[in-house]
Automatic annotation (TrEMBL):
Protein name in the entry: Pentatricopeptide repeat-containing protein, mitochondrial
GO MF term set: zinc ion binding
Protein's organism: Ananas comosus (Pineapple)
Residue intervals of the DYW domain: 46-133
Length: 133
């Protein structure tokens, strides 16, 4: 069986970031703290996790936890922490972005006033100001 797929993350300047699942990750706590702050702000703006994108038969709160740890969210949070304001965050992902993560990335681009570009298995997504072009 092939190893699980994880995205690689590159900032506009070309720096490559290591995935959170690599242990020990030097920024794990900071990444999770930032994601938690962003999640609280998104929920204030009306975001409700779409757990239909979790394929496992789990309790609802565990499905939300599964979504919370999707690799593109972790990658974007890592990019936000490691870059200077105004830098474009670029994520390269070898799988498709799920619909819930698409919604989340639109919100993160609006909250942080940052441009986020994600290349997934099918297309480029350009998130800016809460919109995907």
């Amino acid at each position: 069986m092939p190893p699980p797929k994880t995205p690689s993350v590159k900032l506009f300047g070309g720096d490559k970031l290591s995935p959170l699942k690599e242990a020990p990750h030097d920024m794990r706590d900071e990444i999770l703290r930032l994601l938690n702050e962003l999640m609280m702000e998104m929920k204030k703006r009306g975001y409700v996790p779409d757990t239909s994108f979790v394929m496992h038969d789990l309790e609802e709160h565990k499905k939300e936890q599964q979504l919370y740890m999707h690799s593109e969210r972790l990658a974007v949070a890592s990019g936000l922490l490691k870059s200077v304001p105004g830098t474009v965050i670029r994520v390269v992902k070898n799988l498709r972005v799920c619909g819930d993560c698409h919604t989340v990335l639109k919100l993160i681009s609006d909250i942080t006033h940052r441009q986020i570009v994600v290349r997934d298995a099918n297309r480029f997504h350009h998130f800016e100001g809460g919109i995907c072009s």
